[in-house]
Specification:
heterodimer, A: alpha+beta, hypothetical protein PF0899 fold, three-stranded mixed sheet, 2 helices, 6 strands, about 20% helix, elongated, B: alpha/beta, Rossmann fold, seven-stranded parallel sheet
Chain lengths: ~120, ~220
């Protein structure tokens, strides 16, 4: 259950980027989360709504883009998605593979509410 | 519609502190490993056998991470090595700033090897760099051969796998070859040791490897 500490880190980063005069609140926070990042989106959303309650970020939704786990083969150069925890190259059987995508855990951008929106 | 671009890693603060820890370890020539596993696979027992075996050969300090109690630090203190207990009070993993704080209680000039025993958990600790040289993951025979498949991130991120409780193989439903293959499919460069903390089997080979790496740091 490290989603709570991840949610807190997201909150801190968003707070740093939020204009001081912003009064209408945050509509959504866009994240990239890799399949291998070890984060459960449902759990993260729950934790995020709990820690944003009563703050300037109250009501902000998480817009999560899941990034597939993709490796490249060091032997034949193929790119392949990892399924069922098998990191071997499906084309040549090579074991010298490196992860191209799937470890992401990033805050990409935030979308602010329209001016005049009542904070929920 | 107003959008503010951020593009930042969620755990960048942890990563920055981990990097500072790593630089500190490098300056003092200390080899550091982060010991991870699920609860009950024998991390503390491996630690005890390791301290016994390396007693007088390598200057060691230990950081113990637990959710509650300092029972593990008490076990380690018997071996006459400096041990710092971090109690996370519910936290499921150690973070780099907790290690940074703990380092205040350790004389880094007096040690060559630092062992960090993480909280028993195969998911959360894999996200948090502590500044270690490498991760050592423990899987015991009582957990079955499919453990790596269920927790691929940890087995991919680790450099060493210790398969523990091999003395129990005749009594448990665990195919050792399948366990090895499952782990190597995820991470072919894993260095594997097989140990029993009850009989002591495999402990010398693991400790030799550890000593060689400590000398090389």
């Amino acid at each position: 259950m490290h989603e709570l500490s991840i949610a807190q880190s997201i909150f801190d980063i968003v707070e740093q980027h939020l204009p001081k005069e912003n009064g209408s609140g945050v509509k959504s926070v866009r994240l990239k989360i890799g399949e291998l990042a070890g984060v459960v989106p449902d759990s993260l959303e729950f934790c995020f709504s709990a820690i944003t309650a009563g703050t300037r970020l109250q009501g902000a939704l998480l817009d999560i883009e899941r990034i597939p786990l993709v490796c490249s083969c060091g032997e034949c150069g193929a790119h392949f998605p990892v399924r069922d925890s098998v990191f071997l190259c499906p084309r040549c059987g090579g074991s010298r593979t490196s992860i191209l995508t799937g470890r992401e855990l990033q805050v990409i951008e935030i979308e602010l509410n329209e001016e005049g929106t009542e904070l929920s | 519609m107003s959008v503010i671009t951020i593009e930042r890693k969620v755990l960048e603060k942890n990563d920055q502190i981990a990097q500072r820890n790593r630089e500190l370890f490098a300056r003092h020539g200390i080899f550091v490993f982060n010991l991870v596993s699920s609860p009950g696979s024998g991390k503390t027992s491996i630690l005890e056998r390791t301290l016994e075996h390396l007693n007088g050969k390598v200057k060691i300090a230990v950081i113990e991470g637990d959710v509650q109690t300092d029972l593990d630090a008490q076990r380690i203190a018997r071996y006459n090595v400096p041990a710092v207990q971090i109690v996370t009070k519910g936290g499921c993993h150690l973070e780099a700033n907790l290690i940074q704080d703990a380092l205040g209680s350790i004389d880094l000039r007096a040690i060559r090897l630092l062992i960090i025993e993480n909280v028993g958990n195969l998911v959360c600790p894999s996200n948090y760099d502590l500044g270690e040289s490498l991760k050592v993951v423990v899987a015991s025979t009582t957990e079955g051969e499919d453990k790596p498949l269920k927790y691929p991130a940890m087995f991919r991120n680790a450099s060493v796998l210790i398969i523990n409780k091999i003395d129990l193989l005749p009594y448990v439903n665990c195919n050792l070859n399948a366990l090895r293959d499952n782990a190597l499919n995820i991470n072919p460069s894993l260095r594997i040791f097989e140990t029993s903390c009850t009989t002591g089997e495999g402990i010398p080979a693991w400790c030799d490897w550890l000593q060689t790496n400590t000398r090389a740091t």
